[in-house]
Target: S-adenosyl-L-methionine-dependent methyltransferase
Amino acid sequence: MQFNISASKKEFSKDEDIPALLLFHPQVSFQDKEAYKTAKVILQDKASCFPAVVLNPPASAESTVIDATSTPGNKTSHLSTLMCNLGTPFAFERDHKRFLSLQTMLSKAKCQNVEPINADFLVVNPMDSKYSKVMHILLDPSCSGSGIVTHLDYLVKSVEQEANSVQEDQQNKLAAFQLMMIKHAMKFPSVQQIIYSTCSIHAIKDKHIVCAALESAKALSCKLQTHSPKPSPTAMEALWIC
Ligand SMILES: C[S@@+](CC[C@H](N)C(=O)[O-])C[C@H]1O[C@@H](n2cnc3c(N)ncnc32)[C@H](O)[C@@H]1O
Model:
């Protein structure tokens, strides 16, 4: 859900861009609400709603999708909703504890079509027949979260500056991991669309990664297109950055 400063606490409205997104005043609390506890309502800022909407997998029984990095499951449940609980979104999570909470969330939200898998996406074999029809992949990998705005940001600025040099090394490692994830996603034989999203505002984890991915041998061999009216079934249709 997106916060709407202009609305009163009793009002809400429909978002103009994202179907099923309702806008509430920032001070409206959902923590005690039954709809929130039972996951009928999922709290999510508008920016986080774009990846699933842009990926827009078909709502059909044959539709197979991968959410490579799933917990807590907000984007997975969004994908499941967009697919009308049809087809199969495979939802990967490598961390066991986080996987358990993903399972709980998906079951609460009644995402019956999702197949959660406790595995590292990087070791999944793209040639496994189970994934042979995967056309859509969502990649929302771990990142620094630098794009997440909090009201306390001004307090941490000076601390952040001191830690910058340490962070640089960490950022390079994260960036290398994120690029590896995209390149791995490109290996799935039927993939046509990969959505890569992060909560980071650093170009090293956004634009630079996407550019490096587009320049990779795999992307070049796919004759990557941005939006073709008649996409070739073997070419990757688009790599978006959200
Ligand atoms: C940014 S969070 C994903 C948020 C999620 N997409 C959502 O909208 O709720 C990244 C998650 O991916 C998991 N992860 C990181 N690397 C992974 C990998 N190689 N394979 C599977 N899961 C991974 C992390 O443990 C973490 O839970």
Notes: Residues 1-43 form one domain.
